[in-house]
Amino acid sequence: MAETGIPTRASAQVAPLAPFAATPAKRPLRLFRNMNSKVASLPMIATVLIIFVGCSLWTVFYSFTDSKLLPRLNFVGLDQYTRLWGTPRWVVSISNLAIFGVCSMVFSLVIGFTLAALLDRKIRFENTFRTIFLYPFALSFIVTGLVWQWILNPTYGVQKVVRDMGWETFTFDPLYTESLVLYGILIAALWQGTGLVMCLMLAGIRGIDEDIWKASRVEGIPTWKTYVVIIIPMIRPVIVTAVVIIASGIVKVYDLVVAQTSGGPGVASQMPALYVMDKMFKDQNLAQGFAASTMMLLTVAIILIPWAYIEFGGKKRG
Amino acid sequence: MADIASPALARNPAIAKGPRGQKPRKTFAPANIMLYGTLIIVAMYYALPLYVMIVTSLKGMPEIRMGNVFAPPLEITFEPWVKAWSTACTGINCDGLSRGFWNSVWILVPSVIISISIASVSGYALSYWKFKGSELFFGILMIGAFIPYQVMLYPIVLVLKNLGDFLSYFSLALGFDKIQVYGTLSGLVIVHTIFGMPILTLLFRNYFAALPEELFKAARVDGAKFWGIFFKIMMPMSLPIFVVAMILQVTGIWNDFLFGVIYTKPDIYPMTVQLNNIVNSVQGVKEYNVNMAATLLTGLVPLFVYFVSGKLFVRGIAAGAVKG
Lengths: 318, 324
Fold this sequence. Notes:
By secondary structure, chain A is mainly alpha-helical. Chain A contains 15 helices and no strands.
């Protein structure tokens, strides 16, 4: 770029106007080369520096203080974390997240792959089926949670329908039963999210070379076995992507629980995100919320770093 | 995977188009019945909630108490819809979901426009006008997409408050009113722009980078500059990706709940927040038909976008997801 500016404070502030600066600079300063691009990227740079780096570090930093209603810099070391792990509600949240996470990961992948494989069988009305499987993904978690709250309603929903059919003792009341509530949420979560996994997997399966299929047919391998033994290893990158997407969605789960159960009955369906929100915006216990959200960040890092290592670290060396 | 492509395929491209899987089956072969049977049952599970929503919202309360959730309405009534739209109560406000709907529209329009314009320009800068550190910022932006929102929520409140104070400093000096950013529409628009940025920037960067570079070079030779190339060459060529980005943002922002709850006040709560307040309020008799009508109303916009956009929607989420 030929655009140059004068390396003074004034011109730095009116950076977009730099090209119109009348004085021709003798030595173009590196900072002003490619100026338009830098100016255009300013919102992105600001987002990265202020929000993603700045705000995250700020939260981690203040999680070591005893901030209550307002943030203040009175350091108490790891106190907040000790208290956090001593709070039954947090421990329940974490174990809920683990159960919900494992189930939703396994079922999403299995159902998503199965549906994709079924749709891949050169069937008729493929588009219709795909449209039906994917439409819940367009709906918000709030809508999802409320619909399933209604369907699972013990007085009017599934339970009543089955009882009306003659099975008088049938009980299916997940949302008001402490031991089952997570599975009630899981039903809704899978309904909403499996369409996306299916779409990803289908794209992966369609990307596989025709000759693989021919070879497996020549060898006489049954179709289902071809999928399990040959196709799954071949679409590994897609599966890894799906795992990362599902996992980062699981850690964030919030709206769905709020809409469906608000964390109840009791604390049976609490999740870390709900704990963070309550501590920060309801209980005026900021530092506790910061500590809890830092733990969430840590969880994501534990999931993400190995993935990033496999995905990017391996390739560059290989 | 692509490098396994055999010479046979190259010699005879017709093979590639041939049917995959086993040889054609009879329509009523057992395997076929199994296949379609499974698909239809699963499809019913997926379609069921939408059906239940529609059916319930068209029944009267007595019928709901008598019958079951899956039965079609004996007497169709649109009263629940009218009530959900115009008179359902949240707290002291009894003007129904219409308020939330218009709030959401007012949040949606500027958020979509601003987030897409900023992200498209960033994506363009990142693909054609790299500068020192641009790749690093982009890398952090991608990592940022995975940070749980909860980590950044509170500091952003402070940032918005400070931004308001900072702007007020100028506006008061110029004789205007004090400017509020936190708790107002503009604050929420900023937040949506920020959190839409990773995915949108990625989308645009990848799209622009895939355009033939000769175009860019030719324009440079002809003397076009940064903005000239963007507006006259890149934008007209990238209509599809703008549509994909719009689909992504419209559904995403419309469905947002978390940011709406935190960064706005009850008067300007978006539709999802208001819906949740209507349905999950503890006072009063539960009117399930009104609740379902309200739920359906809230879902209508993204559903409309989904059914109209079809393949583009799939492309949007695939593009967003695969590289995410």
